[in-house]
Amino acid sequence: MATAPLASDLVPRMWRAARARGVDAPDWSGTTPPGDCALTPERYCALLAERATGVRLDLQGDAVRVKASPGAVIRLWNGATTTLHIVDGEETALLLPPDDPSDSSAGRSGAVAFTRGDRVGTGWLGVYAAIRT
């Protein structure tokens, strides 16, 4: 939310302001830019459109319930078998790929959602989402 020439000044100020309000994650759900945001309203909206904020992936047996922004790419896997879906913004259930009897990793399944500039994952990728620095 800071242009390169202003980043060394604005980023620490926005970080301190966010921390003072209890925000300590790189993701946010608000649609109002921070007071010191250097992006135009159009560029800020474009930034929000690239985020995976609000994406929900819920593994339920042989399917994944998905809620993601229109155009998000959803990759499902079951072992080495994968499928690709592009969502329209409506919540939906997507079937996991069927088990391949010749695949020793069958049964290890999950999902990942990719937006234009962000991602959210389940299964083994969910471990990365839980990492905090």
Annotate the secondary structure layout.
Elements: H1 7-20, H2 41-50, E1 56-60, E2 63-67, E3 73-78, E4 81-86, E5 92-95, E6 109-114, E7 119-121, H3 126-129
Antiparallel strand pairs: 1-2, 2-5, 3-4, 3-6, 6-7
Attribute tags:
single chain, 133 residues, alpha+beta, 4-stranded antiparallel beta sheet, 3-stranded antiparallel beta sheet, 3 helices, 7 strands, 26% strand
Structure description:
There is one protein chain. With 133 residues, the protein is an alpha+beta fold. The chain is 21% helix and 26% strand. The chain has three helices and seven strands, in the order H-H-E-E-E-E-E-E-E-H. The protein has helices at residues 7-20, 41-50, 126-129, and strands at 56-60, 63-67, 73-78, 81-86, 92-95, 109-114, 119-121. Strand 1 and strand 2 (63-67) form a beta hairpin. It is elongated.
Query: In angstroms, what separates the terminal alpha carbons?
Result: 21 Å
Strand content: 25-35%
Order of helices and strands: HHEEEEEEEH
Low-confidence stretches: none
Instruction: State the oligomer.
Output: single chain
Task: Describe, in short, the structure shown.
With 133 residues, this protein is of the alpha+beta class. It has helices at residues 7-20, 41-50, 126-129, and strands spanning 56-60, 63-67, 73-78, 81-86, 92-95, 109-114, 119-121.
